[in-house]
Design brief:
By secondary structure, this protein is α+β, with helices and mostly antiparallel strands. Helix content is 25%, strand content 34%. The strands form 6 sheets. Strands 1, 2, 3, 5, 6, 9, 12, 13 and 14 form a 9-stranded mixed sheet that branches. A 5-stranded antiparallel sheet has the order 8-7-4-10-11, with no helix packed on it. Strands 16-15-25 form a 3-stranded antiparallel sheet. The structure holds zinc ion.
Length: 379
């Protein structure tokens, strides 16, 4: 898995200014403080299926009970007049879902508050839940509950830091985090396990900081032998994301990859994502002003230089599996040969696993991948 976006979580009692002042408070002042995150478990969708024991649905604006203790699953469908509830005549703009237990949205088991909003682009389903509980389910999806406990603890700290940072960045947005690889992969509480609960509680409130602020705790699945600097991949220099050799991720067996992309496919995607027009005359290897690998695409009247990461975004993160690749031109095709999975910046999850298997603890793992960041207990 990989996270990419960099991101004030809400305290359970309301919005809370999270910044220097908070970090300067002694940890004891924050003990017992809980934080919640707003997850977009579905976004811009036409419909969702909801179910649960004694499922009850309230109008999100006026709080009237629309559906009381339903034993059947209910389909919610987006409509310009409001949300259509199968078998009911109401058309609310938003609804709040409640179930005694087993609340599921599209089969995904959730805890906490769940609200569905009618937006211009379709339905938006928001699950608001305690940050530590979110992490407990998250670890089972981002890694695996069967991975060594010290790797899970390192992931808990990285994911907590990432979530808090994301909340800070998205204070005025509809939600803090999506549940896909765009942020962090969350598949609901079904992925919670004894090991993930242990990893989260053992590191409760611990975050990586730099300069008194939460760090940009980026991570990825497998670096393929060397992590990359934030400068190389994203063009921003970040002191603790400098990149280094990684001898620990050899367990990532499917690290090497090859893919063939036609020039017409490249042209189509360049048109969609970069407004490119006209034929592609030539594609050549080049280097960026900072000396990193890049690709020059030459057209009849236009020219474009893309870093490896930018080209990956254009072609698709599921097409070019990592930012570490070279290519050869073969007639009307580009043959890409790469290593690793993900952007390669920050913690390599397979490397964390390898370090844990060699007896390193989570602090050593975090220190390797976020070398100049500090580990602090926020609550
Ligand atoms: Zn690695």
């Amino acid at each position: 898995m990989e996270n990419r976006n960099l991101g004030l979580c809400r305290s359970h009692t309301g919005w809370l200014l999270f910044g220097l002042v908070l970090f300067l408070q002694p940890a004891s002042a924050l003990s017992g403080q809980g934080y919640s995150v707003r997850l977009a478990v579905a976004n811009s969708v036409k419909s969702v299926q909801v179910e649960g024991q004694r499922l009850t649905i309230l109008d999100g604006d006026v709080r009237d009970v629309l559906v009381k203790e339903s034993k059947k699953a209910i389909k919610l469908t987006a409509d310009p007049a409001g949300i259509v509830l199968s078998g009911y005549s109401h058309r609310p703009r938003s609804v709040i879902l409640w179930a005694k237990s087993g609340l599921k949205v599209n089969g995904r088991l959730l805890v906490g508050e769940v609200e569905v909003f009618m937006k211009k682009s379709g339905l938006l389903v928001i699950n608001r839940l305690d940050l530590e509980r979110y992490l407990t389910g998250l670890l089972g999806a981002e890694m695996s509950a069967s991975w060594p406990i010290e790797a899970l603890k390192a992931q808990a700290v990285a994911s907590r830091t990432f979530a808090i940072r994301r909340c800070l960045d998205r204070e005025n947005h509809d939600f803090d985090l999506s549940t896909s690889t765009l942020d962090q992969v969350y598949k609901g509480i079904a992925r919670e396990a004894h090991s993930t609960k242990k990893a989260v509680s053992a590191t409760r409130g611990e975050v990586l900081t730099y300069g008194g602020m939460p760090a940009e705790a980026l991570f990825h699945s497998c670096c393929g032998g060397r992590t990359r600097s934030a400068q190389e991949v994203f063009g921003n220099q970040v002191a603790y994301l400098s990149g280094a050799k990684d001898p620990y991720c050899s367990g990532c067996k499917s690290s090497d990859w090859k893919v063939r992309v036609t020039l017409s496919e490249l042209k189509k995607k360049l048109k969609r994502r970069k407004g490119w027009s006209g034929p592609i005359v030539r594609v050549v290897k080049t280097t960026s002003p900072k000396g990193f690998r890049a690709t020059r695409i030459i057209g009849k009247s236009a020219e474009l230089v893309l870093s490896n990461h930018e080209l990956r975004v254009v072609l698709g993160l599921d097409v070019l599996l990592s930012s570490e690749f070279v290519f050869e031109v073969e007639g009307t095709n580009l043959l890409f040969t790469g290593r690793g999975r993900g952007h390669g910046v920050g913690m390599c999850q397979w490397g964390a696993r390898g370090m844990a298997e060699k007896g390193k603890d989570y602090k050593a793992i975090l220190n390797k991948y976020y070398t100049r960041a500090d580990l602090r207990k926020l609550y």
